[in-house]
Amino acid sequence: MIQSLWSGYGKIVRYALDDSEWDSVVIKQVRWPAHRKSSRQNEADLSHQRKVRSYQVEMAWYGKWSEATNEQCRVPRCLALATYGDEVWMVLEDLDTQGFPLRKNACSTPEVKACLTWLAHFHAVFLGERPQDLWKTGTYWHLATRPYELTKMNDEPLRKVAFALDQKLSQSSFQTFVHGDAKLANFCFSRDGKQVAAVDFQYTGGGVGIKDVAYLIDSAYSEEAAERMEKELLDFYFAQLRKALERTGKMIDFVALESDWRSLYPVAWTDFFRFLKGWSPGRWNPQGYSERLAKIVMEQCR
Questions:
Q1: For residues 17 and 79, is the Cβ–Cβ distance under 8 A?
Q2: pLDDT category, 43, cuts 50, 70, 90?
């Protein structure tokens, strides 16, 4: 047993194999909880529908898109996909056996940069692609999928600009695929911490890559450290993105892309903060980095 899935929707298990070219595999086994099989028009039902869709998206990711990745944005190879009634099975390569055995709750800056390198190559590979069978707009906090969190916000000025934030992000000319849940827990590290692979593609879909970057930095640093490290980390990400795009051979105006995504970094940060303020209202430092950044972004949205 590796872990249970969120809200009792199944489990992830490592199996040792006999008489196989694979010593072991990891199986993500999803099963809808019995108390969620009936449909009711309430918050719990909306959450259930979102989770069901997320596993459909992950199946599509592994079945149609994952093979387009490369060694610089490593993902587990998909060995089999199957659906049995209300169960979904994803049989995946065991990344532990492929040189990525470590999971981290806290990272050094070089290790965070390894994750940023992965994101840069991932975003470069899928820049300009249409997210067929994935989320039209990736990330699990996307406004259209979180109406209850919006209504629970006690920050009226931020709530009023929520749609403007979403529009700014969706109207960028430089759309790619976002991982959608690019937190530290979803990266698997090599023993030296210099390389990573990523897992958990339930919320992969269209969007600007800077959303993944903002979310990763938020997951890796305190607000104070994120503010202090912002320039260094963004400079590093865009340097890696330039190299990654050169590798793909795509004809992109990189200066325009970088200018656009840099300008959207505070918007992406504030959009995630908007979700958090509805998901867990009332616990934010009014003088903190996120609050101060949100005030600047709100002024720009008026």
A1: no
A2: low
